[in-house]
Amino acid sequence: MAEVLVLVDHFDGDVRKVTYELLTAARALGAPSAVVVGTPGTAGKLADGLKAHGAEKIYVAESEQATEYLAAPEAAVLASLVESVSPAAVLLAASGDGKEIAARLAVRTNSALLSDVVGVGADGVQHSIFGGAFTVDAKGVTDHPVITVRAGSIAIEPTDGAGAEQSVAMPELDPSRQAVVTAREPVVAGDRPELTDASVVVSGGRGMGGAENFGIVEALADSLGAAVGASRAATDAGWYPHQFQVGQTGKTVSPQLYIAAGISGAIQHRAGMQTAKTIIAINKDPEAPIFELADFGLVGDLNTVVPALTEEITKRKG
Amino acid sequence: MNIVVLVKQVPDTYSERKLSDSDHTLDRESSDAVIDEINERAVEAALQLKEADGDGTTVTVISMGPERATDAVRKALAMGADDAVLLSDDALHGSCAVQTARTLAKVLGTLDGVDLVVTGNESSDGGTSAVPPMLAEILGLPALTHAREIAVDGTTITVRRETDEGVTSLRAELPAVVSVGEKINEPRYPSFKGIMQAKKKPITSLTLADAGVDAGEVGLGNALSQVTGAAPKPPKSGGQKIEDGGDGGAQIAEYLAAEKLI
Ligand SMILES: Cc1cc2nc3c(=O)[nH]c(=O)nc-3n(C[C@H](O)[C@H](O)[C@H](O)COP(=O)(O)OP(=O)(O)OC[C@H]3O[C@@H](n4cnc5c(N)ncnc54)[C@H](O)[C@@H]3O)c2cc1C
Ligand SMILES: Nc1ncnc2c1ncn2[C@@H]1O[C@H](COP(=O)(O)O)[C@@H](O)[C@H]1O
Asked: Which domains does chain B have, with CATH numbers?
């Protein structure tokens, strides 16, 4: 069976969850081989998790250079592996870094790039585009398609893999042709669930009226074990951090329940949340377009409705 | 300093976007076409660098797209860019990301001494954030992507890069490719004077042959990936909408409980 290369997305000694989604998805195409690119000592901490999620092989490329440059080290390692093992495909996370590595790899190996897919199968991949308005089937016509997979779109199925480790040399990189990383400030995960895989998301928009008011959205979210999101109007105003923006240029979420408070429902916001199973809208304007989408719409002032809802939920939970 | 800004015309995101029934490519007739909002920010970033640098810096706009992409190019010129190159050729229809990047690299090759290529980080019409790193790979240049801040000092460029994973500081020597994120700036509106001047600014029209690209290397038929099918999502049926009579919070909770969501 052909190998399928899976680039391991890791941070600070931990495998990011999306990697396990990739290892699951890879099994539709062949035998998953995890590829770890990191500073010396990285792979040792990740191996058990990778094995438990079906990695038959673990290629290890460890070098100080791995974190000095952006995307180029991973692209170089993957390109050399594509040459030596001729995989059925290469899978990466559709994150900022993953997309960048994938793009470089596709050019370097003259491969099809299938970006931000939500499904992987032997016949091809599925994309969800224009904010879920269209589902598109596509396939690569090259030997080693490079596929980036949207986090949260594949259900993880753990299974034992042999996890045979094999070290790979880090190819020489020309420093004059790279962007050098001079500092990193990773986003620290909060106590709330990750926005893209939360089953409930509560979002606030311009109607919140200010940063301080996001407290009532956070309280509602916590009563539901939900993640907090925001419209671009709210992130642009600096009321809530950028990484929580939902929409076309922010995150795409597909939770069981999405509650929008003080959000008008502009088409670019909808693009990030319209595939939610149940949508609740709270808005004082009865004409707000968000109501066209809502399963349950409440025309009212969020300043009273949101805290009352939080209280009611807390009460019901007893 | 010679700055090039890559500008793409896209369907207006405020209108409904569709795929064509025949070949599943973007249906460009069904919606208004505008300069991509992120590219207005790219132009703004280039103009700010030019203003900081004083005379001697030029900003050239490059676009690849149908003839009517001239409108997007004019908008960038009206904002203050100096001149433009538009590559238009029917054979490009349906090109994949790899082909697009290779073609744009050829167009860049028609210009002398480019120091900095400024792009958007992701185009709004199903863009994949692929073109900027691909260009860097093809041209052998450093890529500084998802910039929230850009500074150029002599021949050194530094960028604060912001993605969902966090903030990274990057440094490279020019020439380089930089892609801008949506929080980088607020693009200026073209002034009346700018709009009038833009009408006289030079736009060089290129065909594939002019750019030295073989038509057999681009277009739907030669793309490295193929779309095999497309289906619109069935429309959502409307739900209920009620006025808050003072017990709105409780009413929502009631609904959530009935739907077994709490
Ligand atoms: C290329 C492009 C990309 C974009 N990407 C995104 C994106 O990724 N995400 C995104 O969200 N937007 C995006 N936008 C912006 C989008 O067009 C809207 O401007 C934005 O979504 C509006 O945010 P909002 O709904 O919070 O604000 P508004 O549209 O101003 O709506 C605020 C709402 O709050 C209601 N309200 C006010 N006070 C109260 C109150 N006390 N109680 C209840 N309701 C109240 C008002 O009735 C109103 O409906 C993009 C735009 C473009 C052009
Ligand atoms: N056809 C094109 N013409 C000019 N620039 C483009 C084109 N396609 C992509 N770009 C540039 O690359 C950026 C990222 O696009 P993409 O890789 O398609 O998400 C865009 O914001 C543009 O700056």
From this structure: 2-222 (3.40.50.620)
| Measured CA distances, A232 to A172, A265, A279, B121 (Å) | 41, 11, 19, 17
Structurally, chain A folds into a number of domains equal to 2
Is residue B140 within 8 angstroms of chain A, CB to CB?
A: yes
Torsion angle in degrees (nearest 10) through CA of A81, A183, A11, A30? -20
Nearest CA in chain B to A244: B164
Q: Which of residues 161-180 of B touch A (CB under 8 A)?
A: 161-173, 176
Vertex B176 angle, CA B173 and B182, to 5°? 120
Handedness of CA A75, B137, B167, B174 (dihedral sign): positive
Atom 14 in ligand 2: which residue has the minimum CA distance?
A: B122
The reply to whether A242 and A160 lie within a common domain is: no
CA of B104 to the centre of ligand 2 (A): 9
Of A100, A130, A297, which is closest to B129 when you measure between CB atoms? A100
Report the mean per-residue pLDDT for chain B. Answer: 94
| A17, A130, A194: best to mutate for the B interface, most B CBs within 10 A | A130
Predicted-assembly ipTM surpassing the 0.85 threshold = yes
Q: What is the mean pLDDT of residues A295-310?
A: 98
Which neighbouring-strand residues pair with A24?
none
Query: Is A190 within the bounds of a domain?
Result: no
Q: Do B97 and A113 touch (CB under 8 A)?
A: yes
Residues B131-158 have pLDDT tens digits of: 999 999 999 999 999 999 999 999 999 9
A8 and A109 share a domain?
yes
- Is B257's Cβ below 8 Å from some Cβ in A? yes
Please name which of A54, A47, A65, A57 lies closest in space to residue A10, comparing C-alpha atoms: A47
Chain B residue numbers with beta carbons less than 8 Å from the beta carbon of A309 are 248-250, 252-253
How does pLDDT run across A101-144, given as a tens digit for each residue? 999 999 999 999 999 999 999 999 999 988 888 899 999 999 99
Give the Å distance between the CA of B95 and the centre of ligand 2.
12
Residue A192 lies in a domain: no
Same domain, yes or no: A74 and A114: yes
Considering the domain architecture, whether residues A66 and A142 belong to the same structural domain is answered as yes
Ligand 2 atom at minimum distance from B127 CA: 19
Q: Taking Cα atoms as reference points, which of A31, A30, A23, A28 lies closest to residue A93?
A: A23
pLDDT at residue number B14:
83
Q: What is the pTM assigned to this prediction?
A: 0.94
